[in-house]
Each structure stands twice: as C-alpha cells, then as structure tokens.
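Help needed: design a sequence for this.
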C-alpha cells in the first residue's frame, strides 16, 4: 500500500510545479508556499473545522518527500530575502498554530522522522495557564491540558527543527466592536466600551503590551526570543506590523491564500486547510492556480432601507436581507457608506468618522453579519467625488477613508470616478492575473502621472487598506467604457441601464470586446443600475446571455429587500451563484 501511495504521489508531482511568473508575481528564488495546520487527531470523530487526522498528515509528509518538495526554514527564507541563497522551485514552509498538545505528540515525531523544520506558534495565555485550568478558545471554554507544556516546548526547541513563534499572548479572541454587540478579532479591532471607541494611541499600546509580553515569555522559557509573529485568525493591520517590527519581530505570518514572498517577511501568506481535506485538495491549493472562474453575483444594500430607528427593528430587517441573499444565491453585497442629497453631496455616514454627521452606527454591523451569517463578501461604496464635493479638501477625504478602514470589517471597496485607473488595462498575459498579482500591481502603481481624480481615488483606497491590507478593489466604469478589466482592480463593473436594449447591448459587447481567457471573465461584468430594482425578466435574460458569452459576474442596483424586488424565487434559478441545489 505504501508503494502505491508513493507511486501516486510521484505522478501527482508532475502536475504540482508552481505556475510560471507573470507580471505582478513574485521574483524567482523568493517564491514559496506555506501551510497553516492546527490540531492533529487520530479519530475523525474528534475533528473540528481546522484539525486534520494523523493519517492524512502522514500522507502529506510522504507526499512532500515523494513529490520533490523541500521543507524550508525561516533561515532559508531570510537567506533568499537577502539574495544569498535562492529558494528551490518547490519550497514549502510548514507551520502549526495554537500550540495544541498534538504538536508534541504527533507533529514533533514526524518532524524528527522526516527531518523537516516546523514553525510552531504559541498563544501565551493558553500555554501559561496552570494544569487542570480552563481557557477560552474563541468563545468556548476548553481544558488547558489540550495544549503543550513549557517542558514539551523546550524539548522541541532544543531539537533545532521546531522554531517557536508568537501567536500573541492574548489576542486570539474577539473583542467588542460596535454598540450592537458584535465581537471581532482583537488584533485589528478598535474596542468599543462605555459608549466610545479605543483611540489610535490606546490601540497601538495594547498591541505593544501584548506582543512584548509574548516575546518576553517565550524568551524566558526557551532562552531565545521569537522572531516571528503569527497573527491570530490571520488578521493584521499595517500599524500592527509596524509595532511587531519595532519590538524585534522579523517575520509575520498571515492567512492570505496565496504564494509567499521572501521579499515581504512581515506579510508571509499561508494556505489554511480546513475540514480535514484529502491530499488531492491540499496539493491543488498549494499550486494556487484558479482553474475555473468562480461565479460572482452582487447586489447593493442601502442601509436607509434597513435602519428602522431602533436596534430590534433594524435587526429584523437585517435578518430578512440575509435570508434574501441566501435565496438569491448572491455571494457579494455592495453597501453604501453614506447618504447623499439630490445634488450629490453627502449628508450623513453610517459609520463613526470625524468628517460627516453619523446617521447611525450601522455599517460595521451590516458588513460583519452579512459576511459571517450570510456567507458573502461585503464591499463598501463611498463615492470619492461626492466626498470631495462635500468636504472640499482631499486631505479630509483621505482621512474619512482611513476612518472607514479602521471602523468597518470590509472585504473590499467599490470605487468610481477613476477613468484613468480603468484605462490601465491589463496587458497581454495579465488579463488572467491572480488576485495576489493584481494586489501587487496596485501597490506598485505610482501616483505621479495620474490625473487628480484618479490619484485621489487610489490614495483613498490605500488609506482604508492600511487597516485592512488585503482589501479588494472593485472599479465602477461609466456606460460605454472599453470593456476591459483594469489591471489594478479585482473586479471591474460596467454600468448599464436595466432595460432590454441596454442589457442586450452590454452582453453583446462582453462577448465581442473582452480579452480572451477564462480568468478575465471573473474580473469583469455588467452592473445593472437604475433608480428602481431591475425587472425579474430582464435580470434573468441578462444572466443567461452573459453565461452564454462566457461571463460569470453580474450585479444590480437598486435592490429592495422589504418589497422582495426583484422577486427572489423568480430570479434565483438563473442568478444563483451556486450550482445545485439552489438555496431556497
């Protein structure tokens, strides 16, 4: 049986070479992949969402050995960063988070047997608890004995194969994030208490205190200070990275699902296997190749239609919205961040800020509930041109977007009024760029040479992204714009009136004008925009025509959750992003 497995792994190795470098990709010799395991159990009945079974972990180690992968250490990554020694083509960094007891009883023996280095991240508060105590793991109490002891940690550290990293001392938890009671990851959230939010200085000091305590604890117990912070839940901010760097941390590990880059040691991406995946799933994910463009359906959300003036009434409407999202099969929502008047001036915001009156503190609640309960991505829309018209100062606009990023746990921003950014069309080979390549191109885009409107849009986006480094960008194009995705946007949407003639023309243009390649399709599509929701017939017709033309992206605005318009049961069979069964 072992020979059969090894033969099968060798065959798989022919398909698992990393993709060739493309524009915006990682330099040769600095690219590697990293994987983030957690607990390891013998009995499948003991599995939770992040655990794997022992037999599958053994098969994974066998696969690495048989398929020609090289398990690297952070020393190897650092040497590649300095240009001293390039990483091999198939390099992998193996990590284990949380410090479960299985790190010592299951993982450590495998590391010794296969001579593969491991990075192990310990949450100080859990390991430091006395034997027999109970600790809070997320929102549930678990026995402290589920985690390694310091004696076990010291033994693993002395082996030279297990590098001990910080997983913080007490940041692996949720903290109160808004008046409605949502808890969000502590490392990226401004705590809401006593009717006020934590200020910038207090947030920074909280991170300093925690990471210092974790660093000093590990140094005291092992004789060596950790050089790596592994962010709890993979969530981090640029402020947090700066704090970690100032305290002597030289590496930071995230859960961004993409290849890692030795040139970016404070943002090393990792793949997180969940639900005990089979080897074939892990192998496919480690290649980070999107073989099929995913369907994306977007609808807009106007908080004014949800806000009833009180928490109970608003939550009832929010529950209806979440059920509507599920029935429709949409997987992305676009939420307005502010209200405007007939002249296009902003009159009030749905999040705490220093620039506009706050209509209600609702936006973080909507974004979080829709993502965690509705299972969708939440883009936020705040028109830069309208903000500039209202505030009259680009610096105030940038500050408002910074506050938006700090306060709202968004997946991305929808931006408009940036024709110059839209004109930065993907060149040959880039139209099918993977998300991390688009992200790198966006970071590298110089502001010099951009028109003022385009420059301010990009600056505003970057201000928000300081608090949410993996924030996505959707650009909204004016009607008639060239049907080519922007090189800087994860998603380019083309506005069109939701009438039969207009939707037919946009589908025809999509079929004839878009660049070739399946991955281009996932980056662009029509946005049916009008003062009232589109008719069910037009929405279904547009979706069918788009699919025939090879499209996978469609959005519409307006949408009316209270009036069920367009009717969910009528349009879901064509609009739903799920294949089967539809979620009625």
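Sure. Designed sequence:
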């Amino acid at each position: 049986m072992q020979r059969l497995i090894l033969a099968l792994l060798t065959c798989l190795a022919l398909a698992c070479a990393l993709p060739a470098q493309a524009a915006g990709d990682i330099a040769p010799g600095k690219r590697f992949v990293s994987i983030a395991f957690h607990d390891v159990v013998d009995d499948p009945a003991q599995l939770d969402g992040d655990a794997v079974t022992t037999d599958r972990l053994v098969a994974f180690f066998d696969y690495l050995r048989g398929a020609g992968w090289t398990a690297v250490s952070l020393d190897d990554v650092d040497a590649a960063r300095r240009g001293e020694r390039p990483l091999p083509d198939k390099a992998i960094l193996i990590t284990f988070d949380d410090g479960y007891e299985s790190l010592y009883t299951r993982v450590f023996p495998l590391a010794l047997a296969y001579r593969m280095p491991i990075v192990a991240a310990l949450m100080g508060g859990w390991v430091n608890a006395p034997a027999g105590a109970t600790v809070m793991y997320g929102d549930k109490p678990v026995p402290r004995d589920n985690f390694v002891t310091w004696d076990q940690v010291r033994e693993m550290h002395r082996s030279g194969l297990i590098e001990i990293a910080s997983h913080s001392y007490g940041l692996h938890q949720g903290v109160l994030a808004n008046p409605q009671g949502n808890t969000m990851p502590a490392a990226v959230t401004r705590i809401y208490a006593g009717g006020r939010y934590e200020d910038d200085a207090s947030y920074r000091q909280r991170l300093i205190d925690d990471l210092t305590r974790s660093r000093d604890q590990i140094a005291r117990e092992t004789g060596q200070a950790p050089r790596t912070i592994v962010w709890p839940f993979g969530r981090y901010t640029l402020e947090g990275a700066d704090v970690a760097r100032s305290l002597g941390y030289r590496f930071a590990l995230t859960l961004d699902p993409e290849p890692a880059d030795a040139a970016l040691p404070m943002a090393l991406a990792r793949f997180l296997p969940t639900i005990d995946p089979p080897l074939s799933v892990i192998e496919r994910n480690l290649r980070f190749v999107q073989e099929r463009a995913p369907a994306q359906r977007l609808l807009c959300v106007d908080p004014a239609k949800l806000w009833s003036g009180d928490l109970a009434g608003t939550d009832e409407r929010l529950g209806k919205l979440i059920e509507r999202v599920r029935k429709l099969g949409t997987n992305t929502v676009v939420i307005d961040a502010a209200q405007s008047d007939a002249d296009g001036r902003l009159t009030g915001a749905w999040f705490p800020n220093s620039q506009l009156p706050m209509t209600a503190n609702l936006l973080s609640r909507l974004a979080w509930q829709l993502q965690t309960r509705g299972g969708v991505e939440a883009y936020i829309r705040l028109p830069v041109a309208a903000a500039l018209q209202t505030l009259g100062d680009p610096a105030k606009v940038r500050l408002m977007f910074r506050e938006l990023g700090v306060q709202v746990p968004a997946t991305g921003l929808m931006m408009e009024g940036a024709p110059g950014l839209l004109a930065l069309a993907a060149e040959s080979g880039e139209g099918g760029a993977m998300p991390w390549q688009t992200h790198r191109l966006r970071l590298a885009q110089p502001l010099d040479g951009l028109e003022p409107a385009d420059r301010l849009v990009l600056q505003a986006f970057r201000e928000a992204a300081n608090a949410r480094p993996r924030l996505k960008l959707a650009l909204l194009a004016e009607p008639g714009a060239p049907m080519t995705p922007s090189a800087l946007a994860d998603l380019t949407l083309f506005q069109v009136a939701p009438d039969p003639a207009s939707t037919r023309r946009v589908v025809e243009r999509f079929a004839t004008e878009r660049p070739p390649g399946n991955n281009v399709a996932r980056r662009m599509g029509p946005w049916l925009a009008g003062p009232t929701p589109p008719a069910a017939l037009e929405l279904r017709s547009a979706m069918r025509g788009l699919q025939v033309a090879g499209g996978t992206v469609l959005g519409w605005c307006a949408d009316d959750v209270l009036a069920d318009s367009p009717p969910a049961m009528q349009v879901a069979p064509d609009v739903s992003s799920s294949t089967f069964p539809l979620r009625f």
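The first helix runs from residue 2 to 13.
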